[in-house]
What we know:
This protein is of the alpha+beta class. The protein is 48% helix and 21% strand.
Amino acid sequence: MIEGWSPTALFVHGAALCYVLGFLVREQLMLRGLMQVGCVFYILYYFIHPDTPLWDAIAWTIVMFVANAWTIMRILKDRRVGVFDEEDLVVYGAIRHIAPGDFRRLMAKAEKGTAVSAMKLTDEGSGPDALWFIISGGAVLDKRGGRRPLEGPMFIGEISYLLNQSASATVLLNAGSRYAVWSVEDLRRL
């Protein structure tokens, strides 16, 4: 079998091997890098091996190469940490598993503010319309008449949001506390 191979056949086998290795790795950039190398090998094979270059195959392989390169750039951009302000870093500390690019998109949807007076964040028995994060300061949790203080940083309403059910307690944000808030509709779209 190997004796019948032309030197250019190594390109097609090298390309296929790169694809197979790419499909065996879980890391996106490694997979996509191997796909890029495979595309180059396929283009070389389609151009050199036949008597007449396979222009249709070359064109579509170039399209796949460019599409993959565009996605590689998006992945690299999303992984770029960039600069976050101090309050954003407090929120990021609570959800470190999120990619920096996803976090930037999340914070772009947030509205930040300072409570001028006590603010009701959740109402026991009512469905959530927002997800809150106490950046600094505190709140009071009132559950069936029992009250206890809460200190930020912390999310408020995350269980109701995640389970899509009513709040299990009323939470009042203390005056002077800093917060970030996201509408449930924006989060679901995001």
